[in-house]
Amino acid sequence: MKYQILFHTLLFLSFSAADETCESQDSAATVQPCPDLTESCVQEYFQHRVQCTPAIQESGAVKFDTITMKIPSTKMIIDQLNTTIDEVDGKIVAFTVNEEKKLAVLAVEFTNMTMTSNLLFNFYGTGKEPITFTGALDEFFPSIVMTSFLSTETYDLHTARHFAYLPAVPTVGLTGGCLDTDDAVLSEALADFNENFNTVLLEGWRSVGVPLANYYIQNHICDYGIKY
Question: Where is the signal peptide, in residue numbers (predicted)?
């Protein structure tokens, strides 16, 4: 089964709110320590503030063991096994620091990135025992932007928050022996999985993005010596 993912959905939302500022609140306190956004400048900035080892690594690919993705929209937990991600030499597209908010923001874009992995699906139907089946994943992402938010008090990578943004349409190939099953329960679940695959993909990247962002920071900015 192969999916072509299109992100062309427009959401029109209307809310009633109290007197609250609901827009970007960047102020004069927000600075750009590295206006040219070079890795060497960002490395130097981190290394003056964090107990870490300087990191410079030209790496075209990285392998991860197991990435567990929780997909609540389809009642699934998917273990992504033996994942290989190619083209992880990202480009820094934003780096700002706001000492008033004690916040540093680092955004890195990865282009023409491929990801392959084996999948272990666990479907948790209502009132049913879990159904487990396997699959294989082959994906191509023209562009992914990972944005990391770190506290300037510690620059601790353990407590950093990472978010993925997909500005371009990815191509996703998904295969597996149970994907065209006649089982009534599982076939309904897979139909829902297919119909809502945009949401599935974004939910999955909440998990996949964390080791990717940690890998980039530890191998290109500052090696904290932690497992990503």
Answer: 1-18
